[in-house]
Amino acid sequence: MNPPATKYLITHLRHVDIAMPELDTQLAFYRDLWGLTEVASDSGIHFLAAEGSPEQYVVRLRKDPMKRLDLVSFGAATPADVDLLSSQLVRDGVRLVHEPRVLDTAGGGYGVRFFDIDGRVVEVSADVAVRAHRVIEERESIPVRLSHVVLNSPSPEATVAWYGRHLQFRLSDTLHLPGRGDFMWFLRCNPQHHSVAIARGPHVALHHISFEMRGIDEYLRGTGRMLRNDIEKIWGPGRHKAGDNTFSYFLDKAGNTVEYTTELENVDEDTWHPSVMHMSDPAVTDQWGTANPVNEFVAAKSFNDPDKGLFVAPPV
């Protein structure tokens, strides 16, 4: 008899919440240029949805004197799974922000919040109301959904181990920098190659937030719209080897890196074996050879500013 399949409690990435002093220009960027839809606002907090996604929102913007990552939110299948995860976290000594409870936010739901090993706030929720969404049309260059989030850590091996132990994330692939060792770890919570990646950086910070487009044409049209509006490009357009996805990276108005992507690989979890990809091979960073070289400028922008909100829960 085969052993029972492992039950994974995390199902998917829901939303990424960021705070910044310059809220008005940040809101205008995500709503009017990047292509998200404002669905709710309350006392200086704005909720932005992707038109093709059933999630109530994929980005939350909050005005704050400090620039920070407020939280990263993941889905669970049921409230019972949220309770089970919470009990496991408490058993293992993970510090909760709050115990499982009804969430007072767009879409409601039932969730728990806690700090990860680096001091970020993580939320896991279930029973969030599904948003009415639609099929993104051909040539419509707006995000279909949130794709993934990448986080910087000065001790990435420990961070990767923490996400594996406590949230059951599985390693898909690793990037290796010659002379500097392993550099980025791609972690999945479902068949998508990665919903989270952990990058080696000089401090804890947000590396980038990635948004899935309908296809190659829509991805390039969105990239072109950013360029025509003089949004600072960091890297791209190109196509990574890890995940086999396209990439164009830009800076939002608070200096966070955001990405348009498409065609992120799905893996067979029963047969997939992680590999180490060496960045000395130019095809690893960009299979097409169309992107600007990875240099100190790209690295510095990706490091972002040190997160000022570590081990401090956002007010909402």
Automatic annotation (TrEMBL):
Q: Start and end of every VOC domain?
A: 12-127, 145-263
- Pfam families the UniProt entry points to: Glyoxalase (PF00903)
Cited SUPFAM superfamilies: Glyoxalase/Bleomycin resistance protein/Dihydroxybiphenyl dioxygenase
**Family annotation (PANTHER family):** GLYOXALASE DOMAIN-CONTAINING PROTEIN 5 (PTHR21366:SF14), GLYOXALASE FAMILY PROTEIN (PTHR21366)
Q: What name appears for this protein in its UniProt entry?
A: Oxidoreductase
Task: Identify the species of origin.
Answer: Streptomyces aurantiacus
Starting at the broadest rank, the lineage of the source organism is: Bacteria, Bacillati, Actinomycetota, Actinomycetes, Kitasatosporales
